[in-house]
Design brief:
This protein is α/β, with parallel strands linked by helices. It has one domain: 3-Layer(aba) Sandwich (Rossmann fold). The protein is built from eight helices and ten strands. An eight-stranded mixed beta sheet has the order 1-2-10-9-8-3-7-4. A hairpin with a 5-residue loop joins strand 9 and strand 10. Helix 7 crosses helix 8. The longest helix is centred in the first third of the chain and has 33 residues. It starts with a strand and ends with a strand.
């Protein structure tokens, strides 16, 4: 285990494994501890693997190479670390209640998972949900994605920002912040809109209801974005203000672009075949036409969003998982306690 010079918040165009600027005064000081894959994996030596191959197949995202070994060496230690944090939060609440002479109830422990389109953050969120459910202290773990808080396509088209879907302005921030505030207030039930990746739009009349779980995982592109300034110049609330822990899934932008193209090609022969699919028109493209279309979408929308809005939030995470070209986590950056 060693300190790292990479605080995770380097320039958006820098490779994921490039060192960031040194801390002022001492080049070896950093708010993060760096653990290489081998060191991190040893933390799981005394833990039982709760998954089997069927679990991996069910949770793996399209185009990813999630394996039992990856689960055991990366996500098992991470789930135990999160379990420790959840237990510590409970102990702190009880001690605070005793000190204040109050009896405030438990509220969900909220974990944010951020990262680019196609980097594997959804798989990370699903794996952590399943892992945490199997720890005795956190049997009730729920997961929502911020996709449900995107404005409907009709609104995006009316505002002329359909080609900026996934950018901060394409979300109903007020609705998302209200949802987070209700969750952290301990409301018995809180609901969120549902998004369809087939129709590429909000599903009318459908809601996902969250019933005060032990842990809530919130996954999305911009969940670590800083607060916007109010009209009077003061900062407002941000989604991450409601997080107890946060994870950023990181990789080089050129690798993520390749993964996006590979995923697009895979969807062309599956989800795109559905006549109701938003991208159904791409199902009949030739291989070269499909690849060119995917590259164009990345270069116009997802790439700029990553550079401008997503990657700059990396340094705000409590923990960064850095992947190699094969979609394997090779390094963990963990903010010091």
């Amino acid at each position: 285990m060693k300190d790292t010079r990479d605080g995770g918040g380097g320039a958006p165009t820098a490779p994921a494994d490039a060192p960031g600027p040194a801390s002022a005064g001492d080049p070896h000081l950093s708010p993060f501890v760096e653990l290489e894959r081998q060191t991190w994996a040893r933390l799981a030596d005394q833990l039982d693997q709760p998954f089997d191959q069927d679990d991996v197949e069910r949770l793996r995202g399209l185009g990813e190479t999630l394996s039992l070994r990856e689960v055991a060496e990366v996500y098992l230690p991470l789930s135990r670390l999160l379990g420790i944090h959840v237990e510590a939060a409970g102990a702190l609440r009880r001690a605070t209640n005793e000190f204040l002479g109050e009896r405030t109830g438990r509220t969900p422990y909220v974990i944010g998972v951020a990262g680019s389109v196609a980097v594997g953050k959804s798989t990370t969120a699903r794996v952590l949900q399943e892992m945490l459910r199997r720890w005795p202290s956190t049997p009730r773990v729920e997961l929502i994605t911020t996709d449900g808080f995107l404005h409907p396509n009709a609104v995006l088209q009316e505002r002329g920002i359909m080609d900026r879907k996934g950018f901060p302005e394409s979300y109903d921030r007020r609705a998302l912040l209200r949802f987070m505030a209700d969750v952290k207030s301990g409301a018995a039930e809180v609901s969120a809109p549902v998004y369809s990746h087939v129709t590429y739009d909000i599903v009318p009349e459908r809601r996902q209801v969250v019933h005060r779980p032990d842990v809530l995982i919130v996954e999305g592109l911009n969940v670590l974005a800083p607060p916007l300034l109010r009209a009077d110049g003061t900062p407002g609330l941000s989604v991450s203000d409601f997080f107890d822990f946060s994870v950023y899934v990181d990789a080089r932008a050129d690798w993520i672009r390749d993964w996006y193209v590979e995923r697009f090609m895979g969807l062309r022969s599956s989800a795109f075949r559905d006549p109701d699919a938003f991208f159904h028109r791409y199902a009949s493209l030739s291989d070269e036409e499909a690849r060119e279309t995917a590259r164009s979408i990345w270069d116009r929308i997802n790439g700029p969003n990553l550079a401008q809005n997503v990657q700059p939030t990396r340094g705000r995470a409590r923990l960064v998982l850095t992947k190699n070209r094969q979609h394997e986590v090779t390094r963990v950056l963990m903010r010091k306690v």
